[in-house]
C-alpha cells in the first residue's frame, strides 16, 4: 500500500511517547493554521497510555474538539465504554469544554445512537486527526470483517453495529468513508496478538483497516517486531 507509512517503535512501551508526540504536533499545526483541532479517538486498550500522556501536553485545550470513532452500546458509566476510558485516562483531567467532547449516546442502543451521532457530525467538516486501533481480526473502530464498512460515497457517517464478533455485540461506529474524511490518520498497533492482522494488511488482503483511505495516506505507529516476517 503506497498510502501506508509504517513508523517502528522499539517496543510496546515506546508507543505512547511516539503517538503523543505526533498528536501534539498535529494539534499545534491545526490550532495555528485554523484555530482549532478536531480529533477522533480510538477505543480499546492500546490508546490508554497515550491518553494519559496527553494530560501533560502544553496546548490550548479550549481549541480541541473531541469525537469518538466508535463506542460500545453499554451504560454510560460502564468501564467498557471507550468514552469512559478516555475520560478517566485524560479528558477528566484537562480543561476541554464539556460541549467540545462529543460522545455518542450509545447507552440508547445502536440504532438511536447512530442517527443521533450522525446529526452531531452533520455540520462537521474534515477532521484533523483520526486515531485508530487494529483488532486481531483486522477490524478498526467498529468496522468488522464481513460486515458493512460504509466505504461507498453514499454511506452514512455513522453505522449501527448489531453483530460485532467482539462483545459487546452492539456498537456505533463512524463509517470508513467518514473516518477517511480527515487530514491525517494515525493507527496505534502493539501486542503480539496483532501479528496476523498486520501481515494480512501488508499482503494487501482486504481487512477493514485498509478501508480507511484518506487522500494523505495513513501513518501507523507500530511495535517493530510486528513487522518482522
Ligand atoms: C473498540 C475499539 C477497537 C480497538 C481494537 C484494538 O471499541 O474495540 O475501537 O477498534 O481499536 O479492537 O483494541 P486494543 O487496543 O484493545 O487491542
From TrEMBL:
NCBIfam families xrefs: pgl
Task: Decide whether keyword Hydrolase is in the record.
Answer: yes
Cited function: Hydrolysis of 6-phosphogluconolactone to 6-phosphogluconate.
Family assignment? Belongs to the glucosamine/galactosamine-6-phosphate isomerase family. 6-phosphogluconolactonase subfamily.
Name the InterPro entries for this protein: 6-phosphogluconolactonase_DevB (IPR005900), 6PGL (IPR039104), Glc/Gal-6P_isomerase (IPR006148), NagB/RpiA_transferase-like (IPR037171)
Q: Tell me which positions the record assigns to the signal sequence.
A: none
Per its record, what are the GO molecular function terms?
6-phosphogluconolactonase activity
Q: What is its EC number?
A: 3.1.1.31
- Pathway annotation from the record: Carbohydrate degradation; pentose phosphate pathway; D-ribulose 5-phosphate from D-glucose 6-phosphate (oxidative stage): step 2/3
Phylogenetic placement of the source organism: Bacteria, Pseudomonadati, Pseudomonadota, Betaproteobacteria, Burkholderiales
Q: Which organism is it from?
A: Thiomonas delicata (Thiomonas cuprina)
Recorded catalytic activity of this chain's protein: 6-phospho-D-glucono-1,5-lactone + H2O = 6-phospho-D-gluconate + H(+)
Keywords of the record? Hydrolase
Q: What is this protein called?
A: 6-phosphogluconolactonase
Amino acid at each position: 500500500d503506497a498510502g501506508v507509512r509504517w513508523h517502528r517503535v522499539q517496543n510496546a512501551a515506546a508507543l505512547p511517547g511516539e503517538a503523543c508526540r505526533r498528536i501534539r504536533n498535529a494539534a499545534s499545526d491545526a490550532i495555528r493554521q485554523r484555530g482549532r483541532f478536531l480529533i477522533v479517538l480510538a477505543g480499546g486498550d492500546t490508546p490508554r497510555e497515550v491518553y494519559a500522556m496527553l494530560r501533560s501536553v502544553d496546548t490550548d485545550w479550549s481549541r480541541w474538539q473531541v469525537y469518538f470513532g466508535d463506542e460500545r452500546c453499554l451504560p454510560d458509566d460502564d468501564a467498557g465504554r471507550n468514552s469512559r476510558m478516555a475520560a478517566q485516562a485524560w479528558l477528566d483531567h484537562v480543561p476541554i469544554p464539556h460541549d467540545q467532547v462529543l460522545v455518542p449516546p450509545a447507552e440508547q442502543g445502536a440504532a438511536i445512537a447512530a442517527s443521533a451521532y450522525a446529526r452531531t457530525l452533520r455540520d462537521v467538516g474534515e477532521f484533523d486527526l483520526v486515531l485508530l486501533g487494529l483488532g486481531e481480526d483486522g477490524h478498526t473502530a467498529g468496522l468488522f470483517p464481513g460486515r458493512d464498512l460504509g466505504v461507498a460515497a453514499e454511506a452514512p457517517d455513522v453505522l449501527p453495529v448489531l453483530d460485532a464478533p467482539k462483545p459487546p455485540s452492539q456498537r456505533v461506529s463512524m463509517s470508513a468513508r467518514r473516518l477517511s474524511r480527515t487530514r491525517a490518520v494515525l493507527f496505534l498497533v502493539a501486542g503480539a496478538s496483532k501479528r496476523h492482522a498486520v501481515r494480512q494488511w501488508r499482503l494487501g488482503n482486504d481487512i477493514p483497516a485498509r478501508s480507511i483511505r484518506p487522500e494523505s495516506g495513513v501513518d501507523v505507529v507500530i511495535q517493530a517486531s510486528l513487522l518482522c516476517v
